[in-house]
Structures are given as C-alpha cells and as structure tokens.
Amino acid sequence: MNNTFLKACRGEKTDYTPIWMMRQAGRYLPEYQKIRGNVTFLELCKTPELCVEVSLQPIDILGMDAAILFSDILILMEAMGAPLEFHDGRGPVFPETIRDQSALDKLIVPNADESVGFVMETIRLLRQELKVPLIGFAGAPFTCATYLIEGGSSKVFWETKKMMFREPQLFHNLMEKITESTIGYMQAQARAGAQALQLFDSWAGILAPCDFKIFALPYVQKIISSLKQFDIPLIYFANNGSTLLDYSVESGADVIGLDWRINIKDAIKHVGNKAVQGNIDPFALLLPEDELRKRIGRLLDDASSAHGHVFNLGHGIHQFTPPDQAKIAVDAVHELSSR
Ligand code: 1CP
C-alpha cells in the first residue's frame, strides 16, 4: 500500500512529494472517452463498475499517488430532489430552480446509503482494487447552492447574490439543507471506506471576504466538524480563494487546497501547522518539458517549508490537456522531490 498521500496530509515525513490532479478521472483521457462514448454522463456516475474503471485510469496510466472517486458534486443535489440534466457542451442544468421557500420545502435531506448507494458501492469496490488511498468528495454548500439557484453554471451569479442580499434568511435556509445533506453524504462515504474527503468550493472566490464569512464559512465548518470523528484527512479547496485564505484555515480542514493565483510560499505563512495542496496553473502543463520540470522544481522548493505538501494543480485538469504532459508532471514531481 502506498500511503505517501495520507502521510503528507498529516504533515508526516515522506520519501517524496505525492501528487494527484483535481478532475484527474475525466475527459482529457482517451480511455475515459471510450467508456463515456457508450453511456451518458449520469449513467456513468450511477454505474459503480464503470466508475471504478475510470477512477483507476489515472492511477494506472499516469501513476498518481491518490485516487478520487468518480462522481460529480451535483449528484447529491439530484438525490435531494432537484431534477438534474447534463447537456453536452452546456454542462449541468436544473430545470426547476430553487428561488423561493416553497421550492426549497420540496427538497429533502436524503439518506445517502439508500438514495446514492451507487456512490458507496463504488467506494467499496475501489478499496478492493486500489494500492493508493481513495479520496471521496462533495461540493461545498455555497458552490452547490449556486447551481440550484441559477439552474446551472453561471458567469455573474445574479440570482445567487440577489437571494443573498434581498432574502438572506431564504439563502441561509437553503444552505442549512444542503449542509445537512452533505454531512450525511460525506459521513456515508467515510463509512464506506473513503480515506480522505475533499470539499470543492469552486465558486467561493466570487464572494467578498465579509460575505464568505457569513454566507459560506459557517456551513463548511459545520461539515468539517461533523467529519472529525472519522480521523481521516479533510481537505478544503476554495477556488479563486487567495483572498479567503485565512477563512479557509478557520474551516478546520487538515489540508488547505490552493489555486495557482497565490505563491505557495506566501500561502504557507498563513496556514500554520496544516498541510497544503496545490498549486501549479493547470495550463502550465502545456509548457515544453524542460520548462515544465523547472517550474515544478521551483514549486517544490517554495513548498519545502510546508507542514506537508500534496502536489496538485491549482484547479481541475483541462479537458484538452495531452495526457503525456500530465505524465511528465507526475514523473517530475516524483523525481525532483525524492529525498
Ligand atoms: O461529458 C462528460 O464526460 C462530463 C464531464 C464531467 C466530468 C468528467 C463533469 C460534468 N463532471 C465530471 C466528473 C467530476 N466532477 C469529478 C470526478 C473526479 C475527478 O477526477 O476529479 C469531480 C471531482 C467533479 C466535481 C465538480 N463538478 C465540480 C467541482 C470541481 C471543479 O472543477 O470546480 C464542479 C463545479 C462540477 C460541476 C460540473 N460537472 C460537470 C460540468 C460540466 C460541471 C460544470 C462546471 C461549471 O459550472 O463550469
């Protein structure tokens, strides 16, 4: 068993810096596309045997030090009773938006083992196959709320911010319900065998720090504290979150995910005795090999003072990234960090 990732999360000494990449199981891999060619995205998410296969691909093909469960943050929203559609090229769509109390009242707090049992089955099956640790995940409540309120992806988040500022109580009620659901969901993942859990807050960076503190952070803290009993590393990643870094630390997570917009050395000064995860620009994978290796070497140096460093991209790997370039990065991290 290769436990390098778990050790780095706990700030223990490792023989080399472990690496995985956010969204590593996905569209940039031809092997993923082959499977995805035969099923819709939602069918794929609900078929444990196929989820296992695509979760294993980046481990087998690229040599990542951790696997992440193949699923999507929006699967839980569907289990809460929000019909979910995925349209090729347009991304997720929630035709029934949540913009008033009566729509919110129709959402439920699901029993995760029953309503998304396929996720737990995927975790159990993966644990039998894997020789590296398995990361489970969920979307952070604020990020999930934006999809429910907007009815899908958004650029300006008009409806979300309108609700926050005009009907704050309604917004908090929605956050409360998503939080309760997420606690049940992540606890079920831990019981099924997830060895670390990550909360993805992809849209946290659209918030002013004062609003993040009131409308998002308390819910992240509630989820994190409900997971401490499992004694597994908890990772919080706020995308575009450099200005929220001190609050990310207050989340209670053991590992602070960093996007590429901050120098990791500066970030480490803020995180105290927690580990960091990140943070190379996903597009830097397009650099010529020698420059990519140099950049990785610099990042490893900059992170040398961290109390545990998990190498990652600053956000998800882009779908058009050549897999060979991802492989160069994995090998470079292993080689340049080996001690
Ligand atoms: O066509 C396809 O095959 C669907 C593409 C795809 C994939 C491969 C989507 C649609 N989701 C996923 C998998 C996925 N999503 C994983 C798999 C595990 C991994 O390898 O990491 C994970 C962790 C997610 C999480 C996710 N989904 C996030 C958080 C992370 C991030 O990237 O910020 C978000 C915001 C989503 C929503 C989502 N899922 C898919 C799309 C197109 C979107 C919308 C993104 C947007 O609004 O811009």
Summarize it.
By secondary structure, this protein is an alpha/beta fold. Helix content is 49%, strand content 12%. It has a single domain, classed as TIM Barrel (Alpha-Beta Barrel).
Structure write-up:
- With 339 residues, this protein is an alpha/beta fold.
- The protein has one domain (4-337): TIM Barrel, CATH 3.20.20.
- The chain contains 17 helices and nine strands.
- The strands form two sheets. It has a seven-stranded parallel β-sheet. Strands 2-3 form a two-stranded antiparallel ribbon.
- Bound molecules: coproporphyrinogen I.
- The site of coproporphyrinogen I has 21 residues, from β3.
Q: What keywords describe this structure?
A:
49% helix; two-stranded antiparallel ribbon; seven-stranded parallel sheet; TIM Barrel; 339 residues; binds coproporphyrinogen I; alpha/beta
Topology:
Layout: H1 4-9, H2 30-36, H3 41-45, H4 48-62, E1 67-68, H5 75-79, E2 85-87, E3 91-93, H6 101-106, H7 112-115, H8 117-129, E4 134-139, H9 141-150, H10 158-166, H11 168-192, E5 196-201, H12 209-215, H13 217-227, E6 234-238, H14 245-250, E7 255-257, H15 264-271, E8 275-280, H16 289-302, E9 309-313, H17 323-337
Parallel strand pairs: 1-4, 4-5, 5-6, 6-7, 7-8, 8-9
Antiparallel strand pairs: 2-3
Helix pairs in contact: 4-8, 9-11, 10-11, 11-13, 16-17
The protein binds coproporphyrinogen I (1CP).
What is the helix fraction of residues, given as a range? 40-55%
Strand tally, please?
9
Mean pLDDT: 98
Q: Judging from the principal axes of the Cα atoms, what is the shape? A: globular
- Give the radius of gyration: 19 Å
Distance between the termini: 19 Å
What is the CATH architecture term? Alpha-Beta Barrel
Order of helices and strands: HHHHEHEEHHHEHHHEHHEHEHEHEH
CATH topology: TIM Barrel
Sheet with the most strands: spatial strand order: 1-4-5-6-7-8-9
